[in-house]
Structure prediction request, 850 residues.
Amino acid sequence: MTDPDPPLLQARGLTKRYGPVLANDGIDLDLRGGEVHALLGENGAGKSTLSKLLYGFTRPDAGRILCEGREVAPRSPADARGLGIGMVFQNFMLIPALSVLENIALFLPDLPAVLRPGALARRIGEAGARFGLQVDPGAPVRQLSVGDRQKVEILKLVLARARVLIFDEPTKVLAPHEAAALFEVFRALRAEGYAILFITHKLPEVMACADRITVLRQGRVAGGFASGQADPAALVALMFGEPLADRPSPATGSPAHGPPILELHGAAAPAVGSETALRDLDLAVGAGEIVGVAGVSGSGQKELGDLILGLRPLAAGRKTFRGEDASRWSIGRMRAAGTAFVPEDPLAMAAVPGLSVRENLALGTGRRYFKGPRLDWPAMEAAMAASFGAMGFPVPRLDPPIAALSGGNLQRAVLARELAHDPHLIIALYPTRGLDVRSARAVRDLLGRVRAEGGGVLLISEDLDELAELSDRLLVLYAGRIAGEFPRGGWQAGPVGHLMTSGAVPHG
Amino acid sequence: MVETLARAGRALLRHALVAAAALAMFAVILLLAHKDPLKAYLDTFRFALGSADGFVELVVRMTPLLLTAVAVALPARLGLINVGGEGQLYMGAWLASAGAFLLPGLPAGLMLPLVIVLGFLGGALWAALPGLLRAARLVNETIATLLLNYVAPLIVSYFIFGPWRAKGSSAYPQSPLYPDAATLPALFGTRIHAGLFIALLALLLYWLLLEKTRWGLEMRAIGGNPEAAQRLGIPVAGWIVLALALGGGLAGLAGMGEAMGVHGRLRQGLSPGFGFTGFLISWLAGGRPLGILVMAFLFALITSAGDTLQITQGLPFAVVNILLAVILFIVLARRPAAGGGR
Prediction:
């Protein structure tokens, strides 16, 4: 019975019920030192619930958690940390105004009354060098990139002597090169005997770095693999319960050559705070055209989207929408004229968490359902139901607060709302970030369908495969300027990569 | 339905426990002042709830509190903190008085609507000022509304010391009595005035506006996530100004009611802090209409306890401030466990 080398953390029959939903149903999981254990699953498969149980956020209804063979019952994250379990959240738990060193010091359990910054800085430097987590301990966190902030989170856990590290979709917020660096960190941690639970739904990442893979489906363990046994097709089949048909890409026909829906002529906007200034932007999105925008994070993508949406004024140049001068239009007018917006983080940018799904669907429909002092709720609901139907999504329950929806369902609700009134132009800002394979596929299909129906799409993305699949033209944004433009099929990864990272293609 | 009732029952129990704890702590203070707390409480309840005069007094006090509470609750739904109820109350009373004094010959049928509109307008414009500054991202509305509280009574003072000063009452700076047409009708032959209807109507309209209209949806969206509201095309800046103006207008109506329903003239001490008490009420009630009703009643009871204690126990009126503070401490102390305001 006694395992000579028990796993650092074991789950046995973990069960958690939320109302009618069995979020976790008898889950077994072993996390061993020196292993990267990937936890795969569709949105809503129970990955987050499981990590919350392991980290002591919530307590299981049934089942046991064992720490090095000893049964434990973490009642709080503090308990879990005491047991050597640490978690890196999607939303980092850092105080932007404080320095890296101060943030780490705050987290340490053995913080002395009088801080000795020198000693701690040395420890940060040592751990940084050992695991590939180099950051300047004196830098204020607010100045750090997302990737560096994640490094600080990991350093916190390592210095607090956690042995089991849970990563909740750590690559969701990262640019591709940052994700690659994270996997290097995984390797270094693994070599030192740490146990890593890597929650994700990106198959290539799993194939790249996992030693062991557990697939969850509808709250249960659907299957487990050791590294080398798994192939992507089998994993997808396990995640979804059926093989996902390899559908042809939707945007393959040549675009309809209509008049441009959106044009920018020499548009510019100054930087506000830590944002990127936009300069000399010339850009057109035609009817039936998907224009992709590539760039490393912080090149002015969000600012470009906001400029087009009417959230920030043009300091110079002109913006036209379907032939009309729209340079000074408010966002309300842009939306009423047929502009839709699909953001990366719907809960922050396109939904009000405390309001019901129904109320959120009604928001942003402009004047369409005004009926005296009230809204024509039945008409609005009918239009939304039709929109959900057209996209092949089930209509969610309308009464609960929208924050109760899972990430994928939330993005679906936003899509249904934004596409309900046949927009002429869609601004999609990292629309598939954080979505599982199937939800992301559905979003891409939708963008392709909008294009086929004569709408224009500006697709801002960091996923080069996605851009390659969908874009009729690809623009590369670098430091707030358009550094290059390529027609469909006319780009190669090399030049695009150089433009993204340096704004120029080297000669020769 | 059953669930709703159960929740209401629990809320009521919670409020009762808070009140009981506060009364127990206040009893200690009364004992330290060598007073009999039991007798003090009995006197208060007997007078305020057991006698017609006492109850009338309670309702008269409750009227402005309802309005100043909604004046805070409405902007709060957009995430705005209006601490300026007191100043808005004074400006409402001031502008309504200006109307009554400038057009003294109007018949009641015209005069009453005029002073009501002016009362609202006075408070609304006074609150729109911080609203504009906030919408333009220049000054935080909390600071601006707070500081304007110190300005408004000075404007009123200038007029009652100067142009509007009543002749023959040199000892006490106040305006002459309003023309009869500008006096709010009394109800049931008591000191209760028509302002009570205005206050109850305001409470009802507040609920209807926020929960049942598309405007309320937009306001709640701004309160829930200003960034998303902006991105969804809701005119956030416009709503900020309008919501503060609406709130200020209601506080202005409270001032108009005090001036024209209770005092019959404009005075310096028009309000013993109704604007601030309204803030507490709205906050303790979490902005819920029924909660505001209950809390306004409770606070009216407490302030009339002040009167009773003054008369029967010879304690200064200010002791009720101690009781208010005790209640606040208790609510604050148990707040983290209970979560936010709503």
In short: The CA atoms of residues 15 and 295 of chain B lie 9 Å apart.
